[in-house]
């Protein structure tokens, strides 16, 4: 086999990263103070359901999106401090990308697809680009598929080509956004095994998934949504005076509330600082169940309109209560 890629020693340090979007008129905060450190040669799995901010975080790591606040460092580069040309250089030289949909060019061979990042940036002469592409295809186990076009390859093989393309610039960081989502389990396993092997040269591999089956193969798991923290507090009574806020939009959602007496208002906090009233709820109604059951942050805020008495339930208690209310089926 040809010369191995450089051995990497960079550490990835993510500190208190917040990302807010204000697109639809209200603020969504998929990343709310996220921190983790990945060392050279580690495979990190970002685990969370759809909408938990996995793609957002990967885009921030890749320098394609700028966090609202917080810091991302790769080696001695402060990524969040880069702009213009230096940011472009970071994206090209330090990061490799692998996408769920492979994103290969159908009319090009595997070899040409892999060489593409070097060819479009004219990082090296064509001959050398092809040689490096071949090395990476050998590394991902496709030495015998160099001249195949994507249409002649299986899904798993196409994703291997995409991985080889992500590696062709010899990046310190390879990020893969749900790379196995479109594969059957046999092909998914081979791609996962490959990603594990790629740690060898000190590369940091960050893979997002909603599939908890990836957990055992990770060196580190970054939990993107808050299921882990089931509150230990069992059923409890909570009182709020009129005007007090029960919880706020984007807060971590842990409890479901049942109204014992009084009235609350559910409202959305808008990006312009205003608010939009969604609904008022009275005795016997409950709120906050979806965030708590699904592990999503609060999608709206709730305040007491009158003095209220609430019963706060952990999601499993709430579930049990609903089943009881429905009776045996
Ligand atoms: P995941 O990859 O875990 O499914 P995403 O990072 O794609 O999560 O999205 C996290 C949240 O941010 C979602 O609520 C999504 O709707 C929202 N979001 C993502 N991109 C944008 C955007 N460009 N503008 C507004 N909201 C966005
Ligand atoms: Mg995503």
What is the secondary structure topology, with strand pairs?
Elements: E1 12-21, E2 28-38, E3 43-47, H1 54-61, E4 69-74, E5 77-78, H2 84-94, E6 95-98, H3 110-120, H4 126-139, H5 155-167, E7 173-177, H6 185-197, E8 204-209, E9 220-223, E10 236-240, E11 245-247, E12 256-261, E13 264-269, E14 275-281, E15 286-287, H7 289-294, E16 301-304, E17 308-313, H8 315-326
Parallel strand pairs: 3-8, 3-9, 6-7, 7-8
Antiparallel strand pairs: 1-2, 1-4, 4-5, 10-17, 11-16, 12-15, 12-17, 13-14, 13-16
Helix pairs in contact: 3-4, 3-5, 4-5, 5-6
Bound molecules: adenosine-5'-diphosphate and magnesium ion.
What does this structure look like?
With 329 residues, this protein is α+β, with helices and mostly antiparallel strands. The chain folds into 2 domains: 12-223, P-loop containing nucleotide triphosphate hydrolases (Rossmann fold), CATH 3.40.50.300; 236-326, Sandwich (Jelly Rolls), CATH 2.60.120. Helix content is 27%, strand content 28%. The longest helix has 14 residues, at 126-139. The radius of gyration is 24 Å and the shape is elongated. Mean pLDDT is 89; it is low at 227-232. Adenosine-5'-diphosphate binds at residues 21, 23, 28, 30, 48, 50-56.
């Amino acid at each position: 086999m040809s010369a191995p890629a450089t051995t990497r020693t960079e550490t990835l340090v993510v500190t208190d990263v917040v990302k807010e979007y204000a697109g639809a008129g209200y603020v969504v905060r998929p990343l709310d103070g996220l921190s983790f450190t990945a060392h050279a040669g580690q495979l990190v799995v970002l685990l969370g359901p759809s909408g938990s901010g996995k793609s957002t975080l990967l885009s921030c790591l890749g320098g394609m999106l700028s966090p609202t606040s917080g810091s991302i460092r790769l080696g001695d580069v402060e990524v969040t401090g880069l702009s213009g040309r230096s940011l472009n250089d970071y994206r090209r030289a330090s990061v490799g990308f692998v996408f769920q949909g492979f994103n290969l060019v159908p009319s090009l061979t595997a070899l040409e697809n892999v060489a593409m990042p070097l060819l479009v940036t004219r990082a090296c002469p064509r001959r050398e680009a092809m040689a490096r592409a071949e090395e990476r295809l050998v590394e991902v186990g496709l030495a015998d598929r160099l001249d195949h076009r994507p249409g002649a390859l299986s899904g798993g093989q196409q994703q291997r080509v995409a991985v080889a393309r992500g590696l062709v610039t010899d990046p310190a960081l390879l990020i893969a956004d749900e790379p196995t989502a479109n594969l059957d389990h046999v092909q998914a396993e081979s791609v996962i095994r490959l990603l594990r092997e790629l740690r060898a040269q000190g590369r940091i591999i960050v893979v997002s998934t909603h599939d908890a089956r990836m957990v055992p193969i990770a060196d580190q798991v970054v939990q993107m949504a808050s299921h882990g923290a089931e509150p230990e507090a069992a059923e409890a009574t909570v009182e709020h005076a009129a005007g007090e806020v029960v919880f706020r939009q984007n807060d971590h959602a842990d409890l479901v509330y049942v109204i014992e007496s009084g009235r609350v208002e559910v409202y959305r906090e808008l990006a312009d600082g205003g608010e939009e009233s969604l609904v008022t709820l009275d005795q016997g109604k409950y709120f906050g169940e979806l965030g708590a059951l699904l592990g999503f942050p609060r999608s709206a805020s709730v305040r007491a309109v009158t003095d209220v008495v609430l019963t706060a339930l952990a999601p499993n208690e709430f579930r049990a209560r609903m089943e009881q209310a429905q009776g045996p089926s």
